[in-house]
Amino acid sequence: MKRLAISGGVPAVPKAKLVSWPILTAKDWELVTEVLKSGVLAGAFAPQVKALQAEFAEYLGVQYCIAVNSGTAALHMAVAAVGVGPGDEVITSAFSFLASATAAMHQGAIPVFVDIDPKTYNIDPQRIEERISDRTKAIIVVHIHGLPADMDEICTIAKKYNLAVIEDAAQAAGSTYKGKKVGGIGDIGAFSLNQTKNFQAGEGGLFVTNERDYWLRADMVRMFGEQIREDERRSYIAHTLGWNYRMPELTAAIARAQLARLDEINENAQRNAAILNDILKKIDGIEPPFCPPDRTHIYHKYRVRLRFDKLGVREKDTVARDKILLALQAEGVPAVLWQTFPLPANPLFQKKEGFGKGFPWSFPGARAIEYDPLEFPETIKLLNSSIVIGSEKYPVFAQSAETVELWGYAIEKVLHNLDEVMETVEVPEQEPFALGEITSLR
Ligand SMILES: Cc1ncc(COP(=O)(O)O)c(C=O)c1O
């Protein structure tokens, strides 16, 4: 095998082979130009926004869709629409992006975390019930990296305790669970159109539901508490507390153009994942992403887990992980870490500094919630020992087959020369994510 790039060899992946994201086509230009020519750049009922809402509702097979300016806004509207309020609790996964938890706080509610299933990396349904209290009102289920969570099990628990199910499908536009597109399975779905996503528009979000009441309430939150009017004119009457979460027309135009290509992008992701899976399954000690047969994955992120015992590595997990990461980067693989500790370890939760002097935790009658990051061992183990193959600029779903094949061989090259990687690459000595680090944040 060729010399490692970290030892002066030629990188396995030439930079010119990488395809950068986002990919914009003639359709984006056409729709954006249409907006510029129209002179209509914004409006709650503007034509691109309305068309996007109709097209995405049809794509998902749901009744209602509201276009907004971020995935976080869509999540907040979902939390508000199901009636969550101050002092209530909302359950979500310890492994996600921060907004899955802070969306509850935007409504004055308290996030409660649950550890992940070590195979799917999604919330572990077996551990949800132990976190439910009489203040719990909703579960925000995250389809992390594009793999649908265990919706049947989660919806059964939600029904038993009368909880709303909000799907955080920010990373999973187009993924299916038992033949149904995610986002339309629970009570409400929220999508992010942030530039890094398979379905993107720079920034933006989409709220979806089949429930008319949720739709009406969410729309008031989108726009200053105003009610939707049949004649599509604004009333300027606030019926509740609302924000300005409207999506601009240029964003909606790009989103429409991108939606037209979403299935193609997702198929490309699945083809690329299959190529990588085939190469990696021949190597002992590396686990490609798992996808149960009853669902489809759109590989927003392609995360590989390293089994250091099988790889014969004796270094600390995070040190070995970082050495492999640097060796892969030297080979030209855009490998990254995404999230390195459980969400509850963020200083926000450790210090409980929300609004003012500790709201929402300080809300009268709220249950005292403690955030001990060590209660999430599966999340910690995963994040200490895994790497995402593909970066925000060069994600797996944008690449050609040839490029991901080169990535696969680069991974093989690095893992077949692990002794050399461990000896050659220097990374700062560090503790794997552990209590010592956390207590210093308090
Ligand atoms: C899982 C998850 N939830 C929520 C969000 C928030 O979306 P946005 O950045 O559009 O507000 C993101 C992405 O940014 C995400 O990855």
Please characterize this protein's 3D structure:
There is one protein chain. This protein folds into 2 domains: 26-261, Type I PLP-dependent aspartate aminotransferase-like (Major domain) (Aspartate Aminotransferase, domain 2), CATH 3.40.640; 262-341 and 378-439, Aspartate Aminotransferase, domain 1 (Alpha-Beta Complex). The protein contains 15 helices and 13 strands. It has helices at 26-38, 47-60, 71-81, 99-106, 151-161, 212-222, 249-259, 262-280, 308-311, 317-330, 347-351, 377-384, 401-416, 418-424, 435-439; strands at 64-68, 89-93, 110-114, 136-142, 164-168, 176-177, 180-181, 188-192, 205-209, 286-287, 302-306, 335-336, 386-389. The strands form 3 sheets. A 7-stranded mixed beta sheet has the order 1-9-8-5-4-2-3, sandwiched between helices. A 4-stranded antiparallel beta sheet has the order 10-11-13-12. A two-stranded antiparallel sheet has the order 6-7. Helix 1 runs antiparallel to helix 7 (249-259). The longest helix is centred in the middle third of the chain and has 19 residues, at 262-280. The chain is globular. Bound molecules: pyridoxal-5'-phosphate (PLP). Pyridoxal-5'-phosphate is lined by residues 70-72, 96-97, 99-100, 142, 168, 170-171, 192, 194, 205.
